[in-house]
Amino acid sequence: MALRLINNALRRQLAAQLPHNAQVGSVASVHTLDKIGKREIVGFGWNGTACYADRADYPMPAVRFREPTNEINALRAKEQGDWKKLSPQEIKALYRASFCQTIAEVQAPTGEWKMHLGIGLIFTAAAIWVAVLMNLFVYDELPVTFDEEHQKAQLKRIIDLEINPVTGVTSHWDYENKKWKN
Amino acid sequence: MLRITAGKVASAMRGSLGVTSTRVIAVRQHGTEESAEAFDSRYEKYFARDGIDGWEIRKGMNDLLGMDLVPSPKVIESGLRACRRVNDIALAIRWLEGCKDKCGDQKATIYPYLLEKISPTLKELGVPTIEEIGYDKPELALKSVYDI
């Protein structure tokens, strides 16, 4: 009995989630045509959907950038005539009505590399801080055998034992004259 | 398509770049090879077609600018006249920007050549060059969506 109730509740919830008015073949309208508002569709774009992006590899998008307004329509009417009569400001206004950024603006450097370099250096500095503090406060003292006198004594013992006499350390020691070969 | 194997531009480029030839390879159409001239005239005719509309112009331009070549001056002019016929000067400027961008790292040598060849048409139609209108440098800045 309880299971049947839960089943019905689930079914009702699922039905509520189905898209209303789902027509066959209207996927494009669900995705893009509703989102472009009053913008004029002017081309294929790069994949046939009515969307806008500034891309250097597909310079002509599928829709104009701005929705038509009275000023833009007035300029469009003027555009039908001689283009020499358009002032540079009007040409720019017409361009910005159709496009968001120029190709130069798309390709302009952003300076983002500075942020990446800065963050990298901050972490490097933190690592160096950690290393210094570890050496100062955490690590024990080096054993006494690391000082100059002990190292010399160890080297003398290596030479006396003739360690690696063919190609190693003692191959550079001249045993007759008791000094290093040159 | 820009095939520069002879002529003063080639020798000038040889002198300045030390490159022996800067030929752009002819387009292969699924097995049959088309010459550069045939390719150029095909796209010239495409843009020059009577009654072409903005949709087809943009499709042709996007296709051309997606290919590995710099559109030849004749094709650029044909595209500009097509923009004139559909009364869209913004598209004409965008077309010029796209063609300039296709010059890649050879802008300094190819772009002046293109401008020289198409400037009569530009003057006739009243289309400003990218430099004249100030769009060779960024004009406006757009805030990144990640910083909003």
From TrEMBL, chain A:
One annotated GO biological process: mitochondrial electron transport, cytochrome c to oxygen
Task: Output a single Gene Ontology CC term carried by this record.
Answer: respiratory chain complex IV
Provide the transmembrane region boundaries: 117-139
Chief location of this protein within or outside the cell: mitochondrion
Family affiliation: Belongs to the cytochrome c oxidase IV family.
Q: Which PANTHER family match?
A: CYTOCHROME C OXIDASE SUBUNIT 4 (PTHR10707:SF10), CYTOCHROME C OXIDASE SUBUNIT IV (PTHR10707)
Entry function: Component of the cytochrome c oxidase, the last enzyme in the mitochondrial electron transport chain which drives oxidative phosphorylation.
| Subunit-structure text | Component of the cytochrome c oxidase (complex IV, CIV), a multisubunit enzyme composed of 14 subunits.
Q: What is this protein called?
A: Cytochrome c oxidase subunit 4
Q: Which organism is it from?
A: Drosophila grimshawi (Hawaiian fruit fly)
Taxonomic lineage:
Eukaryota, Metazoa, Ecdysozoa, Arthropoda, Hexapoda
From TrEMBL, chain B:
A biological process from GO: positive regulation of cell cycle
Alphabetized CDD domains for the sequence: Cyt_c_Oxidase_Va
The record, for Pfam families, names: COX5A (PF02284)
Entry's Gene Ontology molecular function annotations: metal ion binding
The protein's predominant localisation is mitochondrion
Tell where it localizes: Mitochondrion inner membrane
The UniProt entry's sequence similarity note says:
Belongs to the cytochrome c oxidase subunit 5A family.
| Protein name from the UniProt record | Cytochrome c oxidase subunit 5A, mitochondrial
State the species of origin. Drosophila grimshawi
